[in-house]
Amino acid sequence: MEHLTSWKKDKWLIVGASFMTVLALLFSALYYYMLQHMVTRYHVWVGTERVGVVSSPGIVEEWLRLKQEQVKQQNPEVQTNVLIGDLHYITEQAYKATYDNEAIKSALEQKIRIVLSGIQIRIDGKPLGQVKDESSALQLLEQYKRKFASGEDVVSAEFTQNIELAPVALNAGQISGNEELLDKIEAGAAQPIRYQVQKGDCLSCIAHKFHVTQQTIYELNPSLKGTLIRAGDELILSEIQPLLTVKTVQKRTETKEIPFDTQYVDEPELKEGTKQVMTLGENGLKQTTYLTTRMNGKWVEEQAENETIVRPAVQALVKRGTKVIPGVGTGSFAWPVYQAKLTSEYGKRWGTFHPGTDMVSEQSAILAADRGKVIFAGWKSGYGNCIIIDHQNGYSTLYGHMSQILVSDKEAVEKGEKIGIMGRTGNATGVHLHFEVRVGERQENPLRFLRPSAE
Ligand SMILES: [Zn+2]
């Protein structure tokens, strides 16, 4: 019995264990089943409101992306933005839970806000117009700038006005095309300008010139009374000017010659009036850079920026003879009277030939035109009282019609020495000097040998 009892005990143990095993299997099967049917879903919240349940946040994100695209296509002229409040998700895992990926779309449609915007261009605070975006605005401004600032020599180009690109909310119809805005800039507006009254100006002339009424001038210049204006007065006027001003600075380089100097050295061994070039002079070369400022293409000022010596000039060295030989001319002539006024020149005259130059002066002294030796001093037919000086260098000079002769034949005279007094002796119609220059026997035009300024 003892044996049987123990067997019974074992049997119960086996039954219990089997039952537990089956139960465990059942539970795992159930757990496995439930696990198979667990669903993760996402509650979609906008701010404090739950708007739906979806299987994945991607459903919402994708719908928003498509919406952005659709709005953009419907409003190609402006910038578009689809806004939605604080969008967030709460994740939930539940047995056989449901969601509705379609319902969320119409729910979101109620929550979004569509914003259309553009860029307003403001010039010194005044709106010019609206364009789609900043790049359109910058393109428009560049286009206007390029009209005045093209070429490699442009150093800088900037607007003198303050330009603002301000984002503004607007609709498609409020956008302007670039061409339209460029025309508006060019058409311009009346701008005050300062005007300095010129000699000969009158109020109505100025009004006409600037296409304003005189009334406008009075309004712009309250201190102006009556019609009296003086040259140099400053008036405020108004002139139609483009809305934008482009200030450009251009660089240009100019190459110029630098003239050489000549250094003269007195040479006592060399005859007076002669020169000897020791070193030939040579012009140098310099390069100057100028900066030219223009406003909308109109010249304003030019400044030399820097100067570079490309090649320095070479100074000429010339020996100047100082050796005086009495009675021998220097080779250059001085005027034979002070402050001479020409009355008749060398050349054809009244069907004959006038072989000299006639001159008058308030100063009556006659001076030797160069150093030389008197070879004639006396009366000569037609010439009256007459002196001829041989300069002993191939030249001789003749002085006619004098009232008085102050030197005698064979006398040596210095250049500028007083040799006689102006008169009207011989064939003369009035008091004057008849002056001749001869090369050998040939009478030349004296003005070829005298400096232009008659002194
Ligand atoms: Zn004469």
TrEMBL record:
SMART domains: G5, LysM. Pfam families: G5, LysM, Peptidase_M23. Residues 243-324 form the G5 domain. Residues 193-237 form the LysM domain. Signal peptide: none annotated. The keyword Repeat does not apply. Gene3D superfamilies: Glucose Permease (Domain IIA), LysM domain, Resuscitation-promoting factor rpfb. InterPro entries: Cell_wall_metabolism_enzyme, Dup_hybrid_motif, G5_dom, LysM, LysM_dom_sf, M23ase_b-sheet_dom. It comes from the Bacteria. Keywords: Membrane, Signal, Transmembrane, Transmembrane helix. One of its GO terms (molecular function) is metalloendopeptidase activity. The chain crosses the membrane at residues 12-34. PANTHER family: MUREIN HYDROLASE ACTIVATOR ENVC (PTHR21666:SF270), PEPTIDASE-RELATED (PTHR21666). This is Peptidase M23.
